[in-house]
Every structure is written in C-alpha cells, then in structure tokens.
UniProtKB/TrEMBL annotation:
Residues covered by region (PRFAR binding): 364-365, 402-404, 474-475, 500-501, 523-524
The name this protein goes by in its record: Imidazole glycerol phosphate synthase hisHF
Residues at which substrate binds: 332, 469
Organism: Coniochaeta ligniaria NRRL 30616
Family (UniProt): Belongs to the HisA/HisF family. In the C-terminal section; belongs to the HisA/HisF family.
Matching PANTHER family: IMIDAZOLE GLYCEROL PHOSPHATE SYNTHASE HISHF, IMIDAZOLE GLYCEROL PHOSPHATE SYNTHASE SUBUNIT HISF/H IGP SYNTHASE SUBUNIT HISF/H
PROSITE patterns noted in UniProt: GATASE_TYPE_1
Entries under NCBIfam families matching the protein: hisF, IMP_synth_hisH
C-alpha cells in the first residue's frame, strides 16, 4: 500500500483525515519529529484552531525548516485549514507569529457585523481559470470552518503562479484553495467534505492534481461540468443536521432513542426506552441521504462515567470510517472522577472523543454551571472551564454548547430580571411574555439562568457554536421555536443550530426563512422514517434555498 505522511504536531483530529486517506487505499504514517519529515514523499500538514498556536507548535518543535525544505525540494505537499493558513507570511489572529511565508500576504478575520463568525458549513471552492483544479468541481460544495481567511484579490496570487479557488461569505471573497507546482492547500476540510472532498485528496495522492496544473484548454468534461445548470449557487448552504440521541436500553444495548419533551420512554405500560435503531447504521444512512453533519448525544451521561463509556467511543470510531461529514459528540463532557477514583478532566474526555473521530464536542450541563460561575465572579474568566480548555487546545470551532431551555411564562416584561420575549403563544393563564430558563441533566433541573445569559457567557469563554434545543418543542413535530431562535441569534455572533420540533420539510423552510439561524437539526421525523434528509433538502432547494447535493 502506498504511504502518505501526516504531520501530527498539535492537538487536533487527525483521525478523520487518516480515515479518508485509508479509504482511498493509502497507508498513513504519522510524523512525530522534525527529522522524520525527510522520510516523507507525500506530506500533509493538517491544522485546526488557532494560527499562532499551530505555528508556535511547529516552530518550537523545529518543524518549520524541514517543511520548507520538503516544499523547496519539489515533493508533494498538501496543507489543510490552518495548514493552508500556515503557508502565508502571517495572520491577524496572532500578528507576532510568522507563517512559513511560502505565499506572501497575511490573513484577516471575517467581518462579524452582519454575519456569524466562524464561517461554518458547506461553501464553494471555484477556480474560474482552472475549473477542474485538483478535481474541484463548480457543482460541489466543501466543508469549511474558520474565522480567519486570506481575502481574495483578483490576479494577485495568480501573478505569482498560484491557481486560486475561492468561496464567498457575506460579501467577502476568500481563498478556498490554492495550488502551484508540488503544493496544494485547502481552507476547507476535504476529509469532511464527503465524496467531493475525497476527490481532492485523491488528486493529491495520485499526483493527477499537480500534473494537470499546467493544463489549460478545457475538456468536454470540463465544459459539461461548468454548464450553468451544474454550477452550484454561490455561497454558504443551509445546513441540515441529523441528531441521534443515544442511550443504553433496559437490556444494556446502546440504541438511538427519541423522546417527547425529553421523555424517551414508551407511553405503554412497559415504559421501555424507545428503540429506533442502531447508531452506526443510522448515521451511515443519514450520510447517504445527504446530512451535512451528524450529532450523537449520549443522553444518560449525567449518570454514567464517560471514561468507561467505551461503546460511545466505538460508535465514533466505526462511524468516522465511512461517514465523511463532521461528527459532533455530546454528553458527559466535564471534569469527572473515574470509577477507580482517578480524576479525569473535561479536556481529557474531549481528547478521547477527538481521537476516536469526533470533530466537535458538545457541552450541556457543564456549560450552564460554568456560566453561573462566570456571572458570580463578575464576568471574569480564569481559563479553567471545560469550554476554555478545549477551545484553547482544539480551537473554538470544536466546541459546541448544547442548550436545553424551557419556557417560563410571565405576565409582564418586567416581572422577571430575565430577558423576555413577547410571545405569540400565550401561557396557560394568558401570559404574554416568557423567558427561556436553562436546564441541566437533560432537563431534570431548571436553573435561574436564561438563554441570553448562557449563550453570551459561553461565547466569551470560546464556544464556537450553539446547539439550541427547546424542551417544550422537542418531539412535538410542531415546528421550531422561532421566538427562542430569534432571541438567541440576537444575543451572539457565533453560529446557532436550531433544534427541536421539526416535523416536516416545511418546518426547515420556515426556520431558515423567518430567522437567521445558521443550521437546522431534526431527529424524530428522520428516525421514524416519515421524511428523509434528502426530501428536506430537495424541498428547500425547490424553494430557492441553497443546499448541498449529496454526491455518491
Ligand atoms: O449535559 O453535557 O452531559 O449533555 C447531555 C446532552 O444530552 C445534552 O446535549 C442534552 O441536550 C442531551 N439530552 C439529555 N437528555 C435528553 C433527553 O432527550 N432526555 N436529548 C437529551 C436532547 C434534544 C435534541 C433532539 C432535538 C430534536 N435531545 O438532541 O434531537 O430536540 O428532536 P426532534 O426533531 O425529534 O424534535 P451533558
């Protein structure tokens, strides 16, 4: 089996990338010291998180000159995400930290005045001068997650011999991929971009991407690929996420379950845990239906010791071998004490999940408790919360905060200190206002903290995204809670995933049209087989919303 070398220089998820490479028939060898770079023929530099953190890790370990020598020797090199950013001279994310300076120029941050940052989701990587660059296709979408980007200036990098593919987000055009000679780099994650991404990795591994760089005249295939009907509409797609609540049933097997307002037991006398299928098989099914992401929530984590929760790790390992879209795992990410009395930090638990193939971890109860402490200390951060520690090590984009709010009705806006909304759905006594109280332990305990307070606090701590459930709506099939989503969207700049209540494709259209949500998640309607993910996306597409088409 041919070998490709992966630089494992910083905390990060190289498992997904290794899985993608192995799927393409190559063997992965991890490089763990600078001298080993010289052994590499094909070298991949992955990278997630903070530019300065990645660059200082590379420099401190002495990698930088070896990578520069590898590139200068004309050997195949691929940079991914921060691995692309590292090729530039520097970044506004850490101006004191120099890049590898293979490409001149410095990265800057997306403007978050009118859009969510980080830029998370599926977007284009189009190269008008070379539409088949590294098998990138104009009708495909690729998975990005980043806050910093190299702004595209027409002709600038091209005049230096680079072929450049771009994407656009909220009026800003950025470099999505670039290639020259033996070097290719992508701002998106090809290993998380389904079949479209695997094609790019294959073009690197086989050398066909580099060989075709000098190629100019368009082929028949190229002409048909770029015919207008096949060019994906520009910009970020509407993200549709499938969520699997996982727990052990009464026989001890891990099953996908689904509750009504968080009650996952049958309404019959047996009160058994609803069993809707097997997690790995269901994740694979949703991937094939075109889900843009898959989330697994271990919903009994408040009871179990997650360190011993090997089946959840095994679910991730197996899923990540065949599912090439982002995987989120939640449940039990907090400092804990293992069965034998060993203290295990939330960061260590998250690391176990990342090493097993997770791309993001989702934190629920612990985030609420951390937010309470944050306000109790007058809004100070000490760097010791799970959110801060994990986002420092793996990047903000790797930390999702899952919120489990419940409506609390009040008669007047000022009847509570909490941020209220005037609701179109009055309470049992005709109350016209409500606020959303955060809960912990899967809704079992309600706290005196509202969703605005929680989401602002976790954004300050470094969370990259909010998974916004709603206990009142969960499992009701009555549509998303648009009032809740609008309130949270108005409170934070980070992306928000709307969750709870989806019952048909129209509910997805409604939440995308009537709020500025960044993504929408469904569970029960998919698990019960009432609709497929593809039906939802087709429905959105027919109504002019940009969605990613599944490529088999
Ligand atoms: O608190 O960090 O250990 O994390 C526990 C995680 O488990 C949290 O993310 C919490 O939301 C989740 N959880 C705990 N108990 C339940 C339960 O259902 N009894 N599930 C639970 C939360 C909500 C969504 C659901 C949507 C969409 N599930 O994931 O998928 O509501 O459902 P629908 O489309 O069918 O309406 P920690």
């Amino acid at each position: 089996m041919p070998t490709v070398h992966l630089l494992d220089y910083v905390a990060g998820n190289v498992r997904s990338l290794a899985n993608a490479i192995e799927k393409l028939g190559y063997e992965v060898e991890l490089i763990r010291s600078p001298e080993e770079v010289a052994n590499a023929d094909k070298l991949i530099l992955p990278g997630v998180g903070h530019f300065g953190h990645c660059m200082s890790q590379l420099s401190a370990a002495g990698y930088a000159p070896y990578i520069q020598a590898h590139i200068a020797a004309g050997k195949p090199f691929m940079g991914i995400c921060v691995g692309l950013q590292a090729l530039f001279s520097g970044s506004a994310e850490d101006p004191a930290c120099p890049g590898l300076a293979v490409v001149p120029g410095s990265l800057d941050r997306f403007d978050d005045a009118a859009k969510s940052v980080p830029h998370i989701g599926w977007n284009n990587a189009s190269c008008p001068t070379n539409p088949t660059l590294y098998d990138l296709r104009p009708d495909s979408k690729y998975y990005y997650v980043h806050s910093y980007k190299y702004p595209y200036k027409p002709g600038e990098l091209e005049s230096l011999g680079w072929a450049v593919a771009t994407g656009s987000y909220g009026g800003e055009t950025f470099v999505g991929a670039l290639a020259k000679g033996n070097v290719v780099a992508t701002q998106f994650h090809p290993e998380k971009s389904g079949v479209a991404g695997l094609r790019v990795i294959r073009a690197f591994l086989t050398g066909t991407g580099a060989a075709a760089l000098s190629f100019q005249p368009p082929t028949e295939a190229h002409i048909s690929n770029t015919s207008s009907s096949l060019v994906a509409p520009e910009g970020l797609t509407r993200r549709v996420i499938a969520c699997l609540d996982v727990r052990a049933n009464d026989a001890g097997d891990l099953v996908v379950t689904k509750g009504d307002q968080y009650d996952v037991r049958e309404k019959t006398d047996t009160r058994g845990v609803r069993n809707l299928g097997k997690p790995v098989a269901m994740a694979a099914k949703y991937y094939e239906q075109g889900a843009d992401e898959i989330a697994f929530l271990n919903i009994t984590s408040f009871r179990d010791c997650p360190v011993a929760d090997l089946p959840m790790l095994e679910i991730l390992r197996q899923t990540s071998r065949t599912v090439f879209v982002p995987l989120t795992v939640g449940g039990g990410i907090r400092d804990t004490v293992d069965a034998d009395g060993t203290e295990v930090s939330a960061l260590e638990i998250a690391t176990l999940y990342f090493k097993s193939g997770a791309d993001k971890v989702s934190i629920g109860s612990d985030a609420v408790l951390a937010a309470e402490e944050y306000y109790a200390s007058g809004g100070q951060l000490f760097g010791n919360t799970a959110i801060e520690q994990i986002s420092r090590a793996y990047g903000n984009q790797a930390v999702v905060v899952s919120v489990d709010p419940k409506r609390v009705y009040v008669p007047k806006r000022d009847a509570t200190r909490h941020a209220t909304v005037k609701t179109s759905y009055p309470g049992p006594k005709g109350e016209e206002y409500c606020w959303y109280a955060c809960t912990i332990k899967g809704g079992r305990e309600t706290r005196d903290l509202d969703v605005v307070e929680l989401t602002r606090a976790v954004e300050a701590m470094g969370a990259g995204e909010i998974l916004l459930n709603c206990i009142d709506k969960d499992g009701t099939n009555s549509g998303f809670d648009l009032e809740l989503i609008a309130q949270v969207k108005g409170a934070v700049r980070i992306p928000v995933i709307a969750s709870s209540g989806a019952g048909n494709p129209g509910h997805f259209e409604e939440v995308f049209e009537k709020t500025t949500t960044d993504a929408a998640l469904g569970a029960g309607m998919f698990h019960r087989g009432e609709y497929t993910v593809q039906q939802v996306k087709d429905y959105l597409g027919e109504r002019g919303l940009v969605v990613r088409k599944f490529e088999g």
